[in-house]
Design goal:
By secondary structure, the chain is α+β, with helices and mostly antiparallel strands. It has nine helices and 31 strands.
Length: about 600
């Protein structure tokens, strides 16, 4: 090697080690290690191909030989030459053009994006691009009004003037206002269309402002459509998109509609939230399909399927919470929608005004919460690791039942603005709450389903102290894994549990109220079902129809599908498994429409599919 040639260290294998390796593998193989002259691919023409005797695959690229510094120069030149040689060879056999054709066909067949991502992302990106790039005051040519100041910068030497006494007003970005537990505010109202608001002096182009104004108009139109449908339940409006038939009169006729269903229409899917869906609910509007979904970052999206011509295909979004939205629930007249979140707040959306009002929130006794001392939730929050896990309306829709991450059950009376009770019923997180008549069931990570009689449950008004000791349940049963949910059927005859031991269980009500049920109630039916969704999907929670004893649950099977179970000869059996071209992901959280034979499934990408 010539001393004036800069050459990187080359392993023996890259130099002529190939011959050594081959010799070791087979001593009888003779390898020519004589350096071959360097041949540039630009001067090499591919050998002619005789189609009568050989195919293009029989030709081979030009061999450049092993790397030699005297012949090839630097190693990088050698690598570039090999790449050029390979590109020329692939072009000569038509492989490069075939690859381009495949890419073009894949791009052409890609499904169009429906929902919030396309236009919303464009508007927000335009807004962010209008802001100047962050630069230091020195680079921007500005001098600091106080503190240290650069007076000279030349020749690699920087001269700074000032002293610590001048730091009374240092240059710093304005501090972002922070709220307790990272919430969106301190309990003030949140307008549903606040994500579309902008200041008149904000540096946005006219197109972006027009898009945001149009979205606000669409929010108003969708909410007016909800209240209008409830006010006139008999007025059947023409459907532009998803057609529905008349409500089924029995579970058999209702579920038979799904047995022959295949979801292939792209108009049946839209991106409703930005992140993974944790909560799903359908407004009880007759003859109109309106779906609400809540995601892991506190966003709530509403999709009016009757307005596909809207800017985002009938999808509007808001952010009333700062963490997981764990439950959404409409009142029977659709006038209000309840939302419960891991940020330990409960809000109620007034459909007529489009405003979220915080009706309950938990606070601890630290100094930062002194301003909330008069609120009903003051002193309930136990600090790190405490949050509201689940919540739902009570039977009269005048209060809210809630479960916590520490195993308590709470009831808040909205009319009296007070916590009716805050009682410890478990030692671990409670994932669900279900009330049926005088009985309510809770279940969670302690692997136990507990059933209580509300008449015998402690209703002593909460006095601001820690919850009382664990109360005795009238019936309970331990399972082989954490329990995702335990819900009573609409008739109250069955208790349906979804467990991480890959089972769905149904327990008759008679087993919960019998004299021996205080020991451990007996399960009436066990259905094997894969419930291991993993860390990237929301857990399965089998859910009943609002008025019929049939339930829906997601599935890990492929092709992806939604499973519907109904009664058959005294037991619940799988009656329908609906799949289709638009069902491309696992629908972990699902719900039924109250009056129409329609269901909806939400997945981890924030998309909702109408079945």
């Amino acid at each position: 090697i010539k001393p004036n040639i800069a050459m990187p260290r080359v392993s023996p294998r890259r130099a002529n080690g190939a011959a050594q390796i081959n010799t070791k593998l087979s001593p009888r193989v003779k390898v020519d290690t004589t350096p071959k002259p360097f041949v540039s691919p630009a001067n090499v023409s591919p050998p002619p191909i005789d189609s009568s005797t050989s195919s293009p695959r029989s030709s081979s690229p030009v061999d450049l030989g092993h790397y030699d510094a005297d012949v090839h120069g630097s190693y990088m030149d050698y690598v570039k030459a090999k790449r050029q040689r390979n590109e020329s060879y692939m072009a000569s056999i038509g492989l490069a053009s075939a690859a381009n054709d495949i890419r073009s066909s894949v791009a052409a067949s890609k499904a169009t994006q429906r929902g919030i991502s396309a236009s919303r992302k464009k508007a927000r990106q335009a807004k962010s691009k209008s802001e100047p790039a962050r630069r230091s005051p020195r680079v921007a040519g500005h001098s600091a009004p106080a503190g240290f100041e650069v007076t000279a910068d030349s020749g690699g030497k920087i001269t700074v003037s000032g002293s610590l006494d001048d730091l009374s007003n240092p240059v710093a970005p304005p501090a972002k206002e922070e709220f307790f537990d990272g919430r969106v505010n301190n309990g003030e109202d949140v307008n549903f269309s606040h994500l579309y608001d902008y200041d008149e002096d904000e540096d946005l182009d006219d197109e972006t402002k027009a898009d945001l104004d149009a979205s606000k108009v669409e929010v108003t139109a969708i909410f007016e459509g909800i209240t209008g449908e409830v006010a006139k339940p008999k007025a059947k409006k023409a459907r532009k998109m998803l057609s529905t038939s008349s409500p089924a009169s029995s579970p058999d006729s209702y579920i038979s509609r799904f047995a022959s269903l295949s979801v292939n229409d792209e108009s049946c899917v839209a991106k409703v939230t930005k992140e993974r869906i944790y909560a799903m609910e359908m407004a009880p509007t007759p003859h109109k399909i309106i779906v609400a979904a809540g995601d892991k970052h506190g966003n709530v999206g509403i999709w009016d399927t009757s307005n596909p011509g809207f800017k985002e295909n009938g999808v509007v979004t808001s952010k009333p919470h700062s963490s997981v939205v764990t439950h959404l629930e409409f009142k029977p007249d659709s006038s209000k929608m309840l939302s419960v979140s891991y940020d330990s707040t409960v809000r109620e959306l007034d459909i007529e005004t489009g405003v979220y009002r915080q009706i309950f929130g938990t606070y601890n006794t630290d100094d930062v919460c002194e301003q909330f001392k008069g609120s009903a939730g003051y002193g309930i929050d136990e600090g790190t690791g405490y949050f509201l896990q689940y919540g739902c309306y009570d039977a009269a829709h005048n209060g809210v039942f809630m479960t916590t991450s520490q195993g308590q059950v709470l009831h808040y009376d909205c009319r009296a603005d007070r916590v009716t009770f805050n009682t410890q019923v478990s030692n671990k997180k409670l994932n669900s709450f279900s009330l049926s008549g005088d009985l309510f069931a809770v279940a969670g990570n302690e692997r136990v389903v507990r059933v209580f009689d509300i008449r015998k449950f402690s209703k002593k008004a909460w006095n601001g102290k820690r919850p009382s000791n664990v109360q005795q349940a009238v019936a309970s049963r331990e399972y082989g894994g954490s329990i995702n949910s335990a819900f009573f059927s609409p008739s109250g005859d069955h208790l349906l549990t979804t467990c991480q031991n890959d089972t769905l269980t149904l327990t008759p009500r008679s087993a919960l109220s019998s004299p021996h049920s205080k020991e451990e109630f007996a399960v009436g039916q066990t259905i094997k079902h894969d419930n291991h969704t993993g860390r990237w999907l929301s857990t399965f929670m089998a859910r009943w129809h609002p008025s019929m004893d049939i339930f829906v649950v997601g599935s890990m099977q492929k092709p992806r599908r939604l499973q519907f179970f109904g009664p058959c000869k005294g037991a619940f059996k799988l009656q329908a498994a609906v799949s289709g071209d638009t069902v491309s992901a696992v629908s972990s959280r699902n719900c039924f429409h109250r009056t129409e034979p329609v269901a909806a499934g939400g997945n981890a990408s924030g998309r909702v599919v109408i079945f």
